Amino acid sequence: MPVIEAYVWQSPGRPEVAAAMQKAAGTVATLHVKAAEFRWTGQSFTVERRMDKQLPAAGCGLVVRIGSSASSLDWTADQIAPVAEVIRGLAALSPKEIQCDYDCPQKHLDRYTRLLDALQRAAGPVPVIPTALPSWMDEPAFPKLIARHPGYVLQVHSLQLPKQAGEPVLIFDPQAARAATARASKFGVPFRIAMATYGCEVWFGPDGKVARVISEEAAPDGKAPASRGFSMADPNESARLVGEWNATPPPGLQAVIWYRLPVEGDQRNWPWATFEHVVHGEEQPSDLRLEAIDHEGARDLFIVNRGNFPSPLPARVVIGNETVSSDAVAGYTVEPHHHGHGLRFLRRDGQWPWLDPGKKIPIGWLRTSDPNQRIDWTFTQ
User: What's the mean per-residue pLDDT of the chain?
Assistant: First the structure.
């Protein structure tokens, strides 16, 4: 059975993040905390550092991120030096390991190998572990990249942006993850799989092209795109895959590392209740309901998630009752049902389309001629 690990990409100094890290004890074997991020300006590196004096949790790993801004580098000694200096300082904190998460061009894995060798020398006895993408396994340089290190992390989640608004946004494809894991097993090198817990909101401009991706941060106030797209890793698909691996562990698979640890208030990530079920391979049924609360002779209508996983908000809520009056609120509009009987509440475009467990959202209100009449409703997607 693969070990459960998780990434902490949020700042560990925030109280809600520290609380989540404490809560993870007993479920998560190792936390891997983002420690530094490098950006290449064209002439030198800028670096965002998050820790200098001590580890945020005993026995945790650290992660150094190097973005695509550095993808053109040959990784000469002068270019490696500032990264190695930071690695040397992080290694002095005695983490379990240091992961290098580098957006390396697929055709330049030999350069990544050169960088990793230098960083391992700087880290001394602390292992430096590369992250890798499934597409890299096609490259002749891939076996050399992973052979020099005590294992690697294969990232099977990846945000795939559409070319045009209206096309689907994809974060996690379970079939592709199965195939990538089977291929990784054939290299004979221990590996871990990085899986997704998160969702994102994609903004499109008037030309239909991607203008912004919002995942960890809040949407900017006072701004709005021409249109939006959304995606979230499906918890049942992920739980099903974990269940398969628990029953029949793929050769070489040591652990699943989840990106990212659930933190209270993180609106585009699974809540803790969902995370605990998924990481143990436990699928859960949907339990989305319409609940009505009497209020001054009317019925206030709420969609409520009584299940354990985030549920997609219905695109339509059809009310079969004859109504005297009605209105919609928040993320829904209302119109007469097309059969000339009852109402339809329609989800607005741009509404975040998932509802977390235990949460509810108002959609509107209505009055019926008989205030005691049971509300007849159906959901459609």
Answer: 94
